[in-house]
Write a structure and sequence with these properties.
The protein contains 14 helices and 14 strands. By secondary structure, the protein is of the alpha+beta class. It is an enzyme of class 2 (transferase).
Length: 421
């Protein structure tokens, strides 16, 4: 009988692997099946000043106790010969796109799950997919041959089991694990609750409230008890997952689903103590957020402002819902400042965030009851957006960004807060 096999392919230490693969000095002697042939290397935010946190680490670095989110200083104490490189987000995104294209060539039914992961599915047994391990190995080898990046693949009767099998594949010699339907319950029974993918803090509740140590323990709890403790939705999900059930389909468009909101956050190069300085950055971030909202063809009416104080200790994140939907930074800026003034304690600020959500599709009709100059601003925004699209973010910007507090030029050279090249 024909059945669907689901898979999850996950790139190993993706950012760090991209760096090793694209630097000629590390090319010689690398093996797909031997992590030890890679250098001890990390990707970190500020290697010149030996500051920042570890964004990614090769297996060789991890073997010395180095982990992501560890400070660079701690990492260098663990490995004095550690190779530290700046993040190159543009490179990682480019490689990600090409890898996703390769996955789709092997498995037309595929769903990008993150920048370095993808689900796929195929009918089995059929002439083309006669052996799940062999067709998965063909993809694994192709990714290595093209990109010199290792990957792991988990296979199972559904997406959730594929994800759990992928975890097990980390310890497999060939990096591939296939859990057949008749094996699933036996495999799940022995896995610790802490390794139950997707449940987050609920795993701790399962341990405290029910004494669960393994997924097998969770499977022994009745559906009714789980719903009573976690609610109907998550109670049902936990019941199904613990029994190896997941009916989620492969959705090729899910990774490109419309955003429910847009936000930008920036960590400042120094502490900002003056309201005028903080206001400049708020306006810059608001400009970026509103431009993204306009590009999406939407408007929003819930504006949010957040700050983190000096030393990254304390702060706030507050929101206000407006009476109308807006996509113009000029109109939202006074509301943004008012929110900031209301909750700011006067302390020095090290990070700032702005967001706009509660979105609807933009229409040609512009309500003028609240903002009379909406049409004029809309035309100006269209021109500015077009210039940014054609000539870049620095083709036109506010004069206030030229002041010492301005972050526009620095931010324009980064992707995701990190150096693009």
């Amino acid at each position: 009988m024909i059945q669907m096999i689901y898979g999850l392919v996950d790139m190993q230490s993706f950012y760090a692997s991209c760096e090793v693969a694209t630097r000629g000095e590390f090319a010689r002697g690398r093996s797909q099946y031997d992590d030890a042939t890679d250098p001890s290397l990390v990707v970190a935010g500020d290697p010149e000043h030996r500051r920042g946190i570890i964004l990614a680490a090769t297996p060789a670095a991890k073997a010395k106790g180095i982990t992501t989110a560890m400070t660079l200083g701690e990492s260098l104490r663990l490995d004095r010969q550690l190779i530290v490189v700046k993040p190159r987000m543009e490179l990682y995104l480019e490689v990600s796109v090409r890898i996703q294209q390769t996955i789709q060539q092997h498995f037309p039914l595929h769903e990008q799950f993150s920048v370095d992961e993808a689900f796929f599915a195929f009918p089995y047994p059929t002439g083309m997919f006669y052996d799940p391990i062999m067709v998965s190995k063909a993809l694994k080898d192709d990714i290595w041959d093209q990109f010199r990046i290792r990957c792991r693949i988990g296979l199972g009767p559904n997406k959730w089991i594929a994800k759990m099998a992928n975890k097990a594949a980390k310890k497999a010699a060939n990096g591939i694990v296939w859990w057949k339907e008749e094996q699933v319950q036996q495999e799940l029974e022995k896995i610790p609750v802490s390794e139950m993918w997707g449940v987050k803090k609920r795993g701790e509740v399962l341990q405290r409230a029910f004494g669960c140590q393994t997924i097998g323990d969770v499977a022994a709890i009745s559906r009714g008890q789980l719903k009573q403790r976690f609610g109907n939705v998550w109670g049902e999900i936990l019941f199904r997952w613990s029994h190896g059930i997941d009916r989620s389909p492969i959705d090729p468009s899910s990774y490109m689903a419309p955003n429910k909101g847009y936000s930008h956050r920036t960590t400042l190069s120094r502490d900002y103590a003056e309201r005028s300085e903080i206001g400049i950055v708020l306006l810059e971030l608001l400009d970026e957020v509103c431009e993204r909202v306009r590009h999406s063809g939407q408007k929003g009416r819930r504006i949010s402002v957040g700050v983190t104080y000096a030393g990254f200790v304390g702060g706030f994140y507050k929101a206000k819902t407006l009476g109308e939907y807006v996509d113009d930074a000029k109109l939202l800026y006074p509301v943004c400042l008012a929110l900031f003034d209301r909750f700011w304690t006067g302390g020095s600020v090290r990070a700032v965030a702005v967001g706009l959500d509660d979105l609807i599709e933009r229409t040609e009709m512009i309500q003028l009851s609240l903002f009379e100059d909406a049409i004029k601003n809309s035309r100006l925004n269209t021109v500015v957006d077009d210039l940014h699209t054609r000539f870049g973010e620095l083709s036109v910007y506010r004069a206030s960004s030229l002041l010492p507090a301005g972050q526009k030029k620095v931010r324009s050279s980064k992707i995701g807060g990190h150096t693009a090249r």
